[in-house]
Amino acid sequence: MDNEINSFPQVLTIAGTDSGGGAGIMADLKTFQARHVFGTAVVVAVTAQNTLGVQNSFMLPKAMIDDQFAALADDLHIRACKTGMLGDAQHVRWVVANLKKYNWGPVIVDPVMVAKGGAVLLDPDAIQTVQQQLLPLATLITPNLPEAEQLTNQKITTQKNIQQAAHQLQELGAQNVLIKGGHHLAQQVQDYVLLADGSDFWLEAPRVDTNRTHGTGDTLSACIVAELAQGHDLTTAIRCGKQYVTAAIKHTIQVGHGHGPLNHWAGQKEGLTHAEI
Ligand SMILES: Nc1ncnc2c1ncn2[C@@H]1O[C@H](COP(=O)(O)OP(=O)(O)OP(=O)(O)O)[C@@H](O)[C@H]1O
Ligand SMILES: Cc1ncc(COP(=O)(O)O)c(N)n1
């Protein structure tokens, strides 16, 4: 009976808010809505932010974080979750404890470190805690190139470096790895995927010439979470996420003076049905 009550696919983002609406929990919830799953959130950090940058941030106390997890565990049936901005080492530890305490389905780790505008969203001291405690819980980790460099302690300049870094992230405990190539300014953006069984592939798309790319990583990982919650396999979910984020970047909307947000209605705009994108 409980299965019937909680049968609609429910997902969770564990991250920071963005008052400007473009990244973090806001981008995740917009993506969940567009992808037809019910989105929930554990707020770890609150940021005062807009498309020009992060003006202030506040980390929530442990009791408030634990209570949010407990409230969800008591009532909902979360099928997949993701992490985003976690701020510092102690918050990473508190989140890890709650990931272990309950079952939230597959865990997608988006190891957010620095915002597009340059603000630090993860204390550099916390990187070791992410490597040692969070990575082993990751069904999939989705670093961008600078994050992959930090997590593997190496410069990444070639495709071979990217592949080596992905293997290193697996050795640290992440089951599957998606290294995002948005920060490499080539004509084609290339993301690299290394799966748990050792198979791999590249995802390619033409670079859209725009600075309206606030929240691209959040949107990609949130879409993957949504697809997993609906029962798709990981490869299908990743390919769908890539198609969705590419469309959301391509169909620019004019919001803000700086790094503008994506168009989370892009699937509808392209006339794509839910099943096609
Ligand atoms: N200008 C662009 N044109 C097309 N695709 C892009 C562009 N920029 C990023 N992407 C794609 O968006 C996704 C996110 O990549 P990116 O490297 O920007 O992540 P990120 O830095 O974590 O994003 P954010 O921190 O803004 O959330 C990847 O699939 C990447 O290839
Ligand atoms: C709360 C929060 N989470 C994540 C990001 C990263 O997004 P971006 O790199 O596009 O600024 C952000 N700016 N704010």
TrEMBL record:
Keyword field = ATP-binding, Kinase, Nucleotide-binding, Thiamine biosynthesis, Transferase
What does the record give as the reaction this protein catalyses?
A: 4-amino-5-hydroxymethyl-2-methylpyrimidine + ATP = 4-amino-2-methyl-5-(phosphooxymethyl)pyrimidine + ADP + H(+); 4-amino-2-methyl-5-(phosphooxymethyl)pyrimidine + ATP = 4-amino-2-methyl-5-(diphosphooxymethyl)pyrimidine + ADP
Entry's Gene Ontology BP terms: thiamine biosynthetic process
* Gene3D superfamilies linked to this entry: 3.40.1190.20
**Keyword set includes Kinase:** yes
Q: What EC number is given for this enzyme?
A: 2.7.1.49, 2.7.4.7
> Which is one Gene Ontology cellular component term of this protein?
cytosol
Which family does the entry's similarity section mention? Belongs to the ThiD family.
Record protein name field: Hydroxymethylpyrimidine/phosphomethylpyrimidine kinase
Species assigned in the record: Bombilactobacillus mellifer
Give the encoding gene's name. Answer: thiD
